[in-house]
Amino acid sequence: MRRDNSHVVVVGRPTSEGDPLTYLTDKESYDKSGIATWTGNVRVWQGDHALRADMIRYDRNTGTLTATGHVAMTEPDGSTTYADHFEFSHGMHDGIGTALYLRMEDNAKLAGNGMRRTHGLINDLSKAVYTACEVCSKTPEKPPFWQFKAYNATQDTQHKRIEFDHAWLQILGIPVFYFPFFSMTDPSVKRQSGFLMPGISPHDRFLGTYVTIPYFWAIDQHQDATIRLLASSRTGPEITGQYRNRLNFGTINISAGTAFDTYSTSEYVKVFGNTVTSSNDYGLQGYFFGRANFALNRYWQAGANINLATSANYMRDYRVPGYGQETLNSNLYAEGYGVGAYTRIDAQAYQGLNQGVIQNSQLPWVLPRLTYAFQGQPDLLGGRISLKTTDFNVYRSVGVSDQRAQLAVQWDRPFLNRLGQEWLLTARVDSNVYRATSLNQQPIYATGATRAVTGQALPTIALRMNWPLLRSFSHGVGTQIFEPIAQIIAAPNTGNSSSRNRPNEDSLTYEFSDTTLFSLNRYMGTDRLDGGLRANVGIHQNWSWRGHEIDMLAGESIQEHITYNRIPYSGLDHHLSDPVARIRIAPNSAFDMTARGRYNPWTRQFDFGEGLVSMGAPLLRVTAGYVYAPVTPYYYYGTDYVSQTPNSSYLQKTNELTGGFSTHWRNYHASGFFRRALSRNQFVANGGTVGYSNDCFGLDVMYIKQYTRIGGIQRNTTILFNFTFKTIGTFGING
């Protein structure tokens, strides 16, 4: 049939199995030998293949197609092959071509002087070049930022792989790395089995020089596994694996490893002067990290998070993720969600990693713990009732073992008046019942009986008033809020609660700041409760105009009963507490500052303070932070704090300064940070990153220095080089 001087013809006999050949051309001619010549804007289709050329000659006798001039063939996967000349047989499934250029996904390009096509599945290219970088349109002869130059290359379109023989990795046209053989996944594939980029580290304090060789196994569409072999010059090899499975009703993620560690750590003296000996920390070692979560139905789910290691030193020596933490935590759980209700039952276990602070025998087992929370609908009085319970059984081989049954019931009734005041009436009852043994050991160190069955109940009633006064200014484009806040809380006086023979699992810290100024209980949990009659007052102000904002809060607490049993420097040693305040200043997107603190007017010193400042633009952003507290409660488990003197480890100051910057200019970026303990006059950690990235390549150089000691040993400086090649992967070198 003829349309607009073009010919559209379906050739009767199929040139491949079941696939006819269809073409469209501006002009066609035939000779007596059965050769058809199509010229002009020639287009040919066969199945999912499409071909375009300036001229195509078709031999009806042999079924051979010869395409010449601006040849372009589109493959079923969407990739396009360009050539100067191509000759096909058996339809478009077999053929040879010259000056080939293949464009694939993610801007990947593969070119060659010549190509042989077999069964429409295998493309063999000679003098091949591969890159994912843009080619400069003004100077196309200029080499791209990086490219693979190989003697030959093979593209397997069925298995989605590209293999190079005798290949050089060139950067800016300069050969950098030589690969006798290199295999990679086709850019169109997101997951495929094969070896990943290896890692090389020229020096490590514990491993020496080491290499890592990972292999990825794509089991099916929803599960995979990664196996990694580590070989080092200083200690034994390690093999690790990760298995992932994403199911319709949940997920599984398991990581495990084993090694023969030959590095043995000697004994050392920890912070409190005790000698710590290392045993079973070398030889055959291993770890297991597993996470799983399953949806049982629309309301309930269950799961596990298991983290175990044979020793902290093994994790240190082989850079196992998680080293540097105080503990490895494991738990099993089931939790359910309902209308206004939440239930969770779990079991928890801990493994200590820093033996310089705490021994494994001092860590608890929680078998089990039950948490239930409920919030009801508004009742006839306009209030809303809520309740929460956290019940558990805690076991320690060295230390307090106890069981607790706890219930907190609270009723809140908000209301307004004609003056615009917002009132909140709260009635609450906290109750606990305990059974405990070994109360004379950590973390209670009781001086009385070692066993006790005890309990407490504390009714509390509170009334809070917020009176937000609003006005507009700056010609109606700004607002000011002036909000007085007052609260009165009445409860029986709990007295000297910290010295009682009662377990304490969730109230080891006490915080009095702007964040807890109006809290009913300023302990972190319910094993210790705030009692007595007290009032809290504060002023909240906010100014907002044209994208600028200033927000501040200041207040104090007035107490009838003074108790001296809280953590020292709590700010509540007098009837009138230390004033607390917070301020946030954000005049524009280039500056943001938040600061809070607590000032003691009797000693004329700050008992607590912290601040964070961020300023700059994307070109250069600078941040700085500061925190000060005269008490560091991190060593609570390590020693008897009740009998400590003010110079003990428990009362060491936290006085730290942090800072950092980040910058981004064109293709370059850099960042840095530091953390310095002013009270100890030494750095805690510092580091930085410098990098370059473009459309196809990325280079990052990272530096990290940690000064803290774990297990009596301080790790050396770490330098990491990361080379990222688009469509290929990341290649890392540790120093």
What does this 3D model show about the protein?
Mean pLDDT is 86; it is low at 1-17, 634-642 and 644-649. This protein has 735 residues and is mainly beta. The chain has one helix and 45 strands. Helix content is 1%, strand content 60%. The strands form three sheets. It has a 27-stranded mixed β-barrel. Strands 1, 2, 3, 4, 5, 6, 7, 8, 9, 10, 11, 12, 13 and 14 form a 14-stranded antiparallel sheet that branches. Strands 21-22 form a two-stranded antiparallel sheet.
Strand % is: over 45%
The major beta sheet can be summarized as: 27 strands, mixed, barrel
Q: Give the beta-strand count.
A: 45
- Straight-line distance between termini: 71 Å
Anisotropy-based shape = elongated
Radius of gyration equals 36 Å
The percent range for helix content is: under 10%
- Class per helix and strand makeup: mainly beta
Q: Work out the helix count.
A: 1
Overall pLDDT level: 86
Q: Low-confidence parts, pLDDT < 50 over ≥5 residues? A: 1-17, 634-642, 644-649
Layout of secondary structure:
Layout: E1 2-3, E2 6-16, E3 19-25, E4 27-30, E5 35-46, E6 49-59, E7 64-74, E8 80-89, E9 94-103, E10 109-118, E11 122-131, E12 146-156, E13 161-171, E14 174-185, E15 194-195, E16 199-201, E17 210-220, E18 223-232, E19 238-247, E20 250-261, E21 268-269, E22 275-276, E23 283-295, E24 300-309, H1 312-317, E25 327-338, E26 341-352, E27 365-375, E28 384-395, E29 401-416, E30 422-437, E31 452-466, E32 469-473, E33 478-490, E34 534-545, E35 548-559, E36 580-588, E37 591-600, E38 605-617, E39 620-629, E40 654-665, E41 668-677, E42 682-693, E43 697-706, E44 718-725, E45 729-734
